[in-house]
Write a structure and sequence with these properties.
alpha/beta, two-stranded antiparallel sheet, 34% helix, 257 residues
Length: 257
């Protein structure tokens, strides 16, 4: 148990993981900010409705989904998923991002840094694109956490909750693991506790911030926040850390917007 580790003076390590995601939304960075280390869970296959290869930006016509073309198969782990097609998708994505945000307050700060991802690099594997964009976003946010890929840990046993627990054991020293809110549907909390690992579930309530368009549209890529808010973005996105429950604790009853 975490309390026992504290009494013994042992170091605590909070871990979280997530499938590689293209230009992730604010909630993922909030989860990373609560952890000591982040794992790209690239040993599972892509989901049909997932965001491994797509995400949304906000244009003057409303949300626009940008999708990276991939060779999709449920038999292939994310670590091996290939991007297909020529440079057309890269040019299309960049032109869409530029058109959406060239008038945003912090375009001149972040636009030139983003451009090489689309105009100067030929991507072959989706996980490489996702990881480097994730690292760029974390750097822009000022969020410093180590990242590793689950595929580098060697063979891991089980599926769903058991697979996550196997990952924690392979890393070693993990005292707490943060699931997303959907983790309640499959997490075997007692198995984690038996291994000395406490479990937390993230329930993210999206904060509001000024956007390029009237009103507010949540769940855009984090680049929407960066382009509009700039260096204060991390402070904004972490205000959504509410209703995070530990199993059996009763949780925190606060609300934010």
């Amino acid at each position: 148990m975490v309390a026992d580790a504290v009494l013994r003076g042992e170091a605590m390590k909070v871990l979280t993981a997530h499938q590689p995601t293209y230009m992730p939304w604010c909630g993922l960075f909030d989860k990373i900010a609560q952890a000591d280390e982040m794992v790209l869970f690239d040993i599972v296959s892509a989901e049909d409705s997932g965001f491994e290869n797509r995400n949304k930006i906000l244009t003057n016509a409303g949300p626009l989904m940008l999708t990276v073309p991939i060779r999709h198969s449920r038999e292939v782990p994310l670590s091996e998923v290939r991007i297909v097609g020529d440079s057309t998708w890269r040019r299309k994505h960049w032109r869409s991002i530029e058109a959406a945000y060239h008038k945003a307050p912090f375009w001149d700060r972040y636009g030139p840094e983003l451009k090489p991802f689309y105009m100067a690099t030929h991507w072959q594997r989706l996980v490489d694109l996702d990881e480097l964009l994730l690292r760029w976003c974390m750097n822009a946010l000022g969020l410093k956490r180590p990242i590793r890929r689950a595929s580098t840990l060697g063979p891991l046993a089980g599926s769903k909750s058991e697979l996550v627990l196997s990952m924690c054991k392979a890393i070693g020293g993990v005292t707490e693991y943060i699931f997303g809110s959907q983790g309640r549907n499959y997490a075997d909390v007692e198995a984690f506790r038996a291994a000395g690992i406490e479990v937390r579930f993230q329930d993210y309530q999206h904060p509001t911030y000024p956007q390029t368009q009237p009103g507010f549209v949540p769940r855009m890529s984090v680049i929407d926040l960066l382009m509009n808010v700039g260096p204060g973005s991390l402070g904004v996105l972490t205000t959504g850390t509410v209703n995070v429950y530990r199993h059996g604790s009763g949780g925190i009853g606060a609300g934010i917007i």
